[in-house]
Design brief:
Bound molecules: 1,6-di-O-phosphono-alpha-D-glucopyranose
Radius of gyration: 24 Å
Largest sheet: 8 strands, mixed
Number of strands: 27
Strand content: 15-25%
Structural class: alpha/beta
CATH topology of the largest domain: Alpha-D-Glucose-1,6-Bisphosphate, Chain A, domain 3
Number of domains: 3
Length: 582
């Protein structure tokens, strides 16, 4: 057993190490600066109480993006030096974000140990590679992202840090081979265990869903299936679950080999970036071959999902509402009923309507999955989702891309149970249209202006806040933009008081409410790594089932025009078009 010693390395603070919506995300060249990652990791150790670190087990892994392998070795050495007893690493450093959450909550080591937290190495849907993004975030013992109280403390520590601890002479561990390596240090033994990235997660999925029912659906010749991992970590799980466990054909998988640079793509499952799947599903230009019945995609760390039917896009806001409406019947995990449902503020109110109809507890939280965790820990929420392609449940404390696909396959399996040998299957589109005719439709779109000048973005937001005190002026502007929009009756900035711990989060988005139930929301993204990203969320409710079948961009055109005029988008950003429309 090799012995290591602890070195104290002098350092000085770096500016800008404040975690965003989900951890610290910066360009690789920023992270690779001497001491940069080390400072953030030590600031995290110092923010956690000793009993969460000393003598405990930590998970360290991520989506496998460029710089992850270096970062894992650094964090192993710093863990050893900070008195951690054991580090668990997914084989090749790969664990999806929901799998990390599952590992913290479910995995038991050979000696009965459980993990007390995790460093997740990912910048999620942001591109990877030497000139792109890297990211790191810390998850707590409940398996969920560190709450704001902890991330604020981490940030505070990064501004005063003077030294960090590292076991410099600890040899690099081979993370490609499953097995344990033991070392001896000043505080006793230190172990690094490399384990299978999929086992814990797959077992959890098998305990939630009826795999036999899904298997029958996938075996039906009339049901065709396609899944795109966009070269992210989801590929590892997709191969194991869809191919090995559920018997899907290998040709159903697209881009399922994880790559450090995601094949040069943008691993974001939406209609703009998941090009190959969009084409295959018949939503691209000149799509000639018959598309599959079902398509799914994941982002880099496999917590996001996109659900598509044949030539049909399911908005994430509709997706969570439809899952909630069908969960009890279609998913064994929920057979005793849902404890409650929740959505992030900018997500459409489709879920609210289901909650009301089914008499379920309902919560609206700020953007950031961490806000759902408290509700779940308190037993108040079973299913939740976000417009940003995130859907999940209380089986873990992260959103879960593969779970969402399995949830949809379960709904399809249940609706088609008696139809597998018949003429026609119930399709994704049938399910969505049926949902709209029962609950009404929330037309919804989001415009993103990525990487705009940060100063201009701030001014735009300040302008929108100022404007709220003068509703007559607001109404004059929106009517000038398009006379078809209804009156604005209220404007505010969303503020959230956590009903479990009482903590308050301010400035969570600027909202304009219209008389007919429409809504505009403006927010600055907290996940970019350079400049600012402005998000504009546009929503309109249509209850009349004879009017729920319109093209959504067409239906929302007047509101979009009002949003652009109100915000003076072009004036403040110089942009005449959004970068992404979802
Ligand atoms: C993170 C958060 C989500 C949030 C999303 C977008 O997801 O966990 O809750 O909706 O960012 O946030 P923003 O609008 O601030 O960019 P991910 O998948 O990026 O980790």
């Amino acid at each position: 057993m090799s012995t290591f010693k602890v070195s104290r390395i002098e350092t000085r603070p770096f500016d800008g190490q404040k975690p965003g919506t989900s951890g610290l995300r910066k360009k690789v060249k920023v992270f690779a600066q001497t001491h940069y990652l080390q400072n953030f990791v030590q600031a995290t150790f110092n923010a956690l109480t000793c009993d969460k670190i000393k003598g405990n087990t930590l998970v360290v892994s991520g989506d496998g993006r460029y710089y992850s392998k270096d970062a894992i070795q650094i964090i192993i050495k710093m863990s050893a030096a900070n008195g951690v007893r054991r580090v668990w690493v997914g084989q090749n450093g790969l664990l999806s974000t929901p799998a990390v959450s599952a590992v913290i909550r479910e995995r038991v080591g050979t000696d009965g140990s459980k993990a007390s937290g995790a460093f997740i190495l990912t910048a999620s849907h942001n591109p990877g590679g030497p000139t792109e993004d890297f990211g790191i975030k810390y998850n707590m013992e409940n398996g969920g992202p560190a709450p704001e109280g902890v991330t604020d403390k981490i940030y505070e520590n990064t501004t005063t840090i003077k030294e960090y601890l590292i076991a410099e002479n600890l040899p690099d561990v081979d993370i490609s081979k499953i097995g344990s390596t033991n070392f001896s240090g000043p505080e006793g033994e230190f172990e690094v265990e490399v384990f299978d990235s999929t086992d814990t997660y797959v077992n959890l999925m098998k305990s939630i869903f009826d795999f036999e029912a899904i298997k029958k659906l996938l075996a039906c010749p009339k049901f065709t299936f396609c899944y795109d991992s966009l070269h992210g970590v989801a590929g590892v799980y997709a191969k194991r679950i869809f191919i090995e466990e559920l018997g899907a054909n290998e040709s159903s998988l697209l881009n399922c080999t994880p790559k450090e640079d995601f094949g040069g793509g943008h691993p974001d499952p939406n209609l703009t970036y998941a090009k190959e799947l969009v084409q295959r599903m018949g939503l691209g230009k000149n799509s000639e071959v018959e598309p599959p019945e079902f398509g799914g995609a994941a982002d880099g760390d496999a917590d996001r999902n996109m659900i598509l039917g044949k030539r049909f896009f399911v908005t994430p806001s509709d997706s969570v509402a439809i899952i909630a409406a069908n969960a009890v019947e279609a998913i064994p995990y929920f057979s005793d009923g849902l404890k409650g449902v929740a959505r992030s503020m900018p997500t459409s109110a489709a879920l609210d309507v289901v909650a009301e109809a089914l008499n379920l507890k309902f919560f609206e939280v700020p953007t950031g999955w961490k806000f759902f965790g408290n509700l779940m820990d308190a037993g108040l929420c079973s299913v939740c989702g976000e417009e940003s392609f995130g859907t999940g449940s209380d089986h873990v404390r992260e959103k879960d891309g593969i779970w969402a696909v399995l949830a949809w396959l379960s709904i399809l399996a249940q609706k088609n149970k008696e139809k597998l040998n018949g003429e026609k299957l119930v399709t994704v589109e049938d399910i969505v249209r049926q949902h709209w005719s029962t609950y009404g439709r929330h037309y919804y779109t989001r415009y993103d202006y990525e990487n705009v000048d940060a100063g201009g973005a701030k001014e735009l937001m300040a302008h929108l806040v100022n404007l709220q005190s003068d509703l007559p002026q607001v109404n004059k502007i929106v009517k000038e933009a398009n006379s078809a929009v209804s009156n604005v009756i209220k404007g505010d900035e969303f503020e959230y008081k956590d009903s479990v711990d009482g903590s308050v989060s301010k400035h969570q988005g600027i909202r304009y409410f219209f008389e007919d139930g429409s809504r505009l929301v403006f927010r600055l993204s907290g996940t970019g790594s350079e400049g600012a990203t402005i998000r504009v969320y546009i929503e309109q409710y249509e209850k009349d089932s004879s009017k729920t079948g319109r093209d959504s961009q067409e239906a929302l055109k007047p509101l979009v025009e009002a949003a652009l005029r109100l915000s003076k988008m072009q004036e403040f950003t110089g942009r005449s078009e959004p970068t992404v429309i979802t």
